């Protein structure tokens, strides 16, 4: 019985000595060789993982049926596990690790930010030189609680600026702003600040729409709920079109005048005839069974109640003439030609009389 206890203590002592010797050799080898990230039997790093999750350090070795003489994993200068004739797990890693003996790969669970750093492995196959590897592990908190605040949402083109700020929980965050599906980039009127978490925009009508903030880090990403901007502008390009479109209209015709404009919010309308205000205030003005007394210059004035800007259209000339007399054989165009010719003759006669009087 006494001999068995001594033997057991001796085996533990030998295993501990072997672990310490392997650890010292591993540290010395790392210092001498100046191993880079992902060198040897570990893939290129860093490995990225989230707080509370699991990471797998997978070696590049092919599984073997012949057990390795020893496998040693180290975090910095701290032993994680030494596996040879017995497995010795370092303090703080009990219940958190699984060693895969056929490849020397290691699974590490329940990650915290304290696990960030450099990991080194030394594997000693039977009858072969020892194989080493090194890589780095980065731990991040997942992105969450993304929200956007706006200094204002009701704005006026060329006269307003808006500040949008994005906040989120997580670590190593990067920010991207979207207007609809388009990425918001820096320009002479768009300024990104605070590492991209805030944006200041001197607004135009093309900023109308929903803005979202997308936040990401190496292990997760997410987007905020949209913030909708309403951009007021105009009125611009106020224009009147007559339908049907023709040079002259005969009495009794129906004429429809339409006023078009670019404005947000929708503009208010007012109609004028020869500069005198008409009672109609819609975007359309109808002349039904038109009379000659309704001939003249029609125009439309638009007004934006938010921008407080008004704009008047060019004149649309409506000329109403009497219909032609079928018995006379002269059409409306004929009558119009006669009227114009009379004007020309009268004007010429007046000019000739002035010339004769001046000569006398």
TrEMBL record:
Ig-like domain ranges (all copies): 144-230, 235-319
Segments crossing the lipid bilayer: 335-356
SUPFAM superfamilies the record matches: Immunoglobulin
UniProt keyword terms in alphabetical order: Disulfide bond, Glycoprotein, Immunoglobulin domain, Membrane, Signal, Transmembrane, Transmembrane helix
Superkingdom: Eukaryota
InterPro entries reported in the protein's UniProt record: Ig-like_dom, Ig-like_dom_sf, Ig-like_fold, Ig_sub, Ig_sub2, IgSF_CEA-related, Immunoglobulin_dom
Residue runs in coiled coils: none
Name recorded for this polypeptide: Carcinoembryonic antigen-related cell adhesion molecule 6-like
Originating organism: Oreochromis niloticus
Gene this protein is translated from: LOC112848240
């Amino acid at each position: 019985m006494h001999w068995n206890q001594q033997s057991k203590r001796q085996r533990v002592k030998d295993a501990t000595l072997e672990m310490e010797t392997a650890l010292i050799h591993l540290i010395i080898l790392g210092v001498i060789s100046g191993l880079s990230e992902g060198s040897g039997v570990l893939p290129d790093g860093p490995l990225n993982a989230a707080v509370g999750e699991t990471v797998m350090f997978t070696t590049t070795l092919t599984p073997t049926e012949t057990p390795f003489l020893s496998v040693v994993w180290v975090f910095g200068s701290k032993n994680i596990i030494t596996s040879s004739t017995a497995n010795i797990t370092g303090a703080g890693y009990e219940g958190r690790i699984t060693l895969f003996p056929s490849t020397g790969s290691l699974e590490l669970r329940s990650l915290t930010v304290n696990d960030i750093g450099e990991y080194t492995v030394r594997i000693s196959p039977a009858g072969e030189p020892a194989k080493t590897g090194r890589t780095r592990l980065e731990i991040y908190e997942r992105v969450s609680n993304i929200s956007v605040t706006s200094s204002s949402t009701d704005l006026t083109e060329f006269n307003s600026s808006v500040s949008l700020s994005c906040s989120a929980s997580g670590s190593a965050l990067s920010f991207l702003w979207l207007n609809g599906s388009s990425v918001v980039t820096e320009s002479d009127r768009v300024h990104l600040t605070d590492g991209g978490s805030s944006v200041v925009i001197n607004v135009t009508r093309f900023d109308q729409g929903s803005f979202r903030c997308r936040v990401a880090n190496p292990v997760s990403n997410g987007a905020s709920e949209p913030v909708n901007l309403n951009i007021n502008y105009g009125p611009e390009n106020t224009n009147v079109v007559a339908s049907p479109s023709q040079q002259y209209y005969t009495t009794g015709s129906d004429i429809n005048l339409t006023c078009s404009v670019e404005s947000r919010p929708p503009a208010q309308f007012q109609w004028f005839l020869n500069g005198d205000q008409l009672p109609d205030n819609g975007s359309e003005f109808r002349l039904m069974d038109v009379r000659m007394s309704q001939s003249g210059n029609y125009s439309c004035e638009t007004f934006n109640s938010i921008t407080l800007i008004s704009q008047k259209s060019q004149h649309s000339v409506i000329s109403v003439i009497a219909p032609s007399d079928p018995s006379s054989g002269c059409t409306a165009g004929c009558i119009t030609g006669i009227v114009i010719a009379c004007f020309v003759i009268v004007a010429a006669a007046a000019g000739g009389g002035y010339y004769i009087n001046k000569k006398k």
